[in-house]
Amino acid sequence: MEAKAKYHERPWLKFYAEGVPANVEIPERSLPEVFDEVADKYSSRAAVIFYGNKISFGKLREEIDRFATALHELGIQKGDKVALYLLNSPQFIIAYFGSLKAGATLTPISPVYTSIEVKHQLEDSEAKSIVCQDFLYENVERAGAGLKNVILTGIGEYLPLSKKLAGKSVLGRYGKMEVPSQQVIESRGFHQFQKLIKKYPPN
After folding, report:
1. pLDDT of 139-187, one tens digit each?
2. Tens digit of each residue's pLDDT (9 = 90 or more) over 176-189
3. What domains does the chain contain, in order, with CATH numbers?
4. Which terminus has fewer CB within 10 Å in the chain: N or C?
5. pTM value?
6. What count of other Cβ atoms lies within 10 Å of the Cβ of residue 155?
7. CB atoms within 10 A of CB 98
């Protein structure tokens, strides 16, 4: 009880610099709203630097908005579950905020998960759509989850030309997992990340 009483006295306030308020009002805004505000303010500044490739806030927001439109056109509605099975990359950021803007609920999957772990998370989250690193799709297929939408993306899509070979070094960490061929992608009705972004406007 003594510790609780001490806590309520808020002794840390005496260390605040002059002019710093004891209480702050945090506005109720969504993450996409906060991002858009920052993107508008710093449109030309670099938001992401990926292996030397600088992506500005303005460009990032445009691709996020395009991806959100794409998800809407694919039938994803508010509350639908979207899984993100991606490396730490621009695609993760775009898919993350794009999914939120589309009203979806996200369930990120660690890229080091096995097919058994992927299966458990997909089933537990009830995800029907997934944005997946192309060379990780093998685990999704082994998981045998019934997915309505599969969106594939390659690690090299946002690498500068001089660093394209870096993509191979990343792939090397994941053993002999193979990328689905264009024939497989088309025959199974999979979607490709870049094609969706180029096809749909940033509404």
Report:
1. 999 998 889 999 999 989 999 887 776 555 555 555 566 788 899 898 8
2. 667 888 998 988 89
3. 31-199 (3.40.50.980)
4. N
5. 0.85
6. 23
7. 27
